[in-house]
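ok, trying the design again with the full structure, not the truncated one.
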């Protein structure tokens, strides 16, 4: 199960946490649209409300009022392919002999089955197939024998994979980030409390200040009185495995993730795209919204280099259509692209166009858009992509299709160009990604673009010390 989600945890001095949690979930809505949930604790008991749907639909005023307590956690869940999954809506709650636990998880474990089998053998009954329940049961079991910090450490020693967690243990809110820091998690300070959230936009929404990222392998314990937090570095690893795709596509551009403002990283990647494969055309235009920052960086670099190029919007987005990936069948996905985007004739008609997007996954969007722009009168359509070809699936929390569905899994760039019908196609190099993020490739997870992962995944290659492809990222119709 690929859980691409958003999590938050809040402790306040003397205000109920439900509303700030609700607002933060709104800010994290892009990380998950399938379900939303909040768990609070009022000092005596835990309250929860978890519902399918968008944040705005999942909670009524009376739901929020029933969530009493100054401490709480929240979660938004991304739809997995094939539709809705009621079993796995979060936060996940368990009561056990010495208290209550609520858990919100972003990421994906790679050894769930092993631990589930072991715990089932010890008499734990599981109600879902999700890995979050496995973490919750393991932690509950450890808490029977160990204090909180040791119990979290024991669980971290057992579970492998990616996890950014917010946890409600009785009235204490915790944040935990996996030892390689695959998914983001950060700490924020409010006037009257503290927040732990997947992205800093959740903190901004509450008028708070970003304090810092939760460190890979760190446990952060918010004091239930909202007056501070304690940090425990529980696991140390030589290398991180930050997901580069957070900066390319998933995180909001106005978030600071791993100390880098996502918008600036995307603009820098756009400038690199120009440096690596800039092409003369009448107009540069983004695929809204995912290509926008890349296209502005590309166009700026182009004009700095003296190219006579216009930067304009050539596609208008219907903002009421959800992300294409929510559509389970290929037919629906194709219809959704057409429903979502419509050309602006004056930008496109009779002109050569460079179309910029962040990524190609199945190739549905770019194939449809190239055809759409030609129908609208484009003379040439050049496609530039702000990431390397996606050649392998993500097992660590980004829902990204299987190898069979990935257009780049078994095609070279020229074959992809032909498949999407573009006059030319170029992707960005892996070096441009490592440079823009200011990280060595050994500190990033690049599994989806190299097929080699910094985690042990059954049937896949383990990376590190493996040479990666550096060129062969461009093709044009004249090749
Ligand atoms: P595709 O149409 O399958 O090639 O997907 C590429 C389009 O989907 C691009 O416009 C991306 O911005 C967007 N995209 C990339 N990754 C994802 C993802 N994991 N979930 C939803 N959309 C994505």
């Amino acid at each position: 199960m690929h859980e691409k989600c958003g999590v938050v945890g809040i402790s306040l001095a003397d205000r109920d946490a439900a509303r700030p949690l609700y607002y933060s979930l709104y800010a994290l809505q892009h990380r998950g649209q399938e379900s939303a949930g909040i768990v609070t604790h009022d000092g005596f008991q835990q309250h929860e409300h978890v519902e399918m749907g968008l944040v705005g639909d999942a909670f009524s005023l009376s739901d929020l009022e029933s969530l009493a307590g100054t401490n709480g956690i929240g979660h938004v869940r991304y739809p997995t392919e094939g539709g809705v999954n009621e079993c796995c809506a979060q936060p996940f709650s368990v009561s056990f002999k010495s208290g209550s636990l609520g858990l919100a998880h972003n990421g994906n474990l790679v050894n769930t089955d092993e631990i589930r089998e072991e715990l089932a053998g010890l008499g734990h009954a599981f109600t879902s197939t999700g890995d979050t329940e496995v973490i919750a049961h393991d932690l509950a079991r450890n808490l029977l024998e160990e204090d909180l910090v040791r119990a979290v450490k024991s669980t971290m020693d057992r579970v492998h994979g990616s996890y950014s967690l917010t946890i409600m243990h009785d009235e204490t809110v915790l944040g935990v980030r996996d030892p390689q820091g695959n998914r983001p998690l950060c700490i924020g300070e409010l006037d009257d409390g503290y927040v732990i959230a997947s992205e800093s936009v959740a903190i901004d929404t509450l008028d708070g200040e970003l304090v810092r990222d939760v460190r890979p392998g760190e446990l952060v314990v918010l004091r239930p009185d909202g007056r501070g937090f304690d940090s425990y570095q529980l696991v140390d690893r030589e290398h991180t495995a930050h997901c580069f795709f957070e900066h390319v596509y998933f995180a909001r551009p106005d978030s600071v993730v791993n100390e880098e403002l996502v918008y600036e990283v995307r603009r820098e990647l756009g400038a690199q795209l120009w440096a690596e494969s800039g092409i003369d055309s009448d107009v540069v235009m983004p695929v809204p919204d995912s290509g926008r920052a890349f296209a502005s960086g590309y166009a700026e670099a182009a004009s700095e280099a003296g190219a006579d190029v216009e930067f304009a919007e050539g596609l208008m987005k219907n903002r009421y259509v959800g992300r294409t990936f929510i559509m389970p069948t290929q037919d629906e996905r194709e219809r959704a692209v057409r429903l979502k985007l419509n050309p602006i004739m004056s930008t496109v008609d009779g002109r050569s166009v460079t179309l910029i997007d962040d990524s190609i996954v199945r190739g549905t969007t770019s194939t449809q858009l190239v055809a759409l722009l030609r129908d609208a009168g484009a003379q040439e359509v050049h496609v530039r992509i702000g990431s390397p070809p996606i050649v392998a699936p993500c097992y660590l929390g980004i829902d990204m299709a299987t190898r069979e569905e990935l257009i780049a899994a078994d095609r070279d760039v020229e074959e992809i160009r032909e498949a999407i019908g573009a006059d030319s196609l170029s992707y960005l190099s892996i070096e441009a990604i490592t440079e823009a993020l200011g990280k060595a490739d050994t500190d990033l997870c690049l599994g989806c673009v190299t097929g080699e992962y910094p985690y042990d995944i059954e049937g896949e290659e383990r990376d590190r010390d493996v040479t990666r492809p550096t060129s062969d990222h461009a093709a044009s119709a004249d090749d």
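Keeping the full-length input from now on. DSSP finds 16 helices and 27 strands in the chain.
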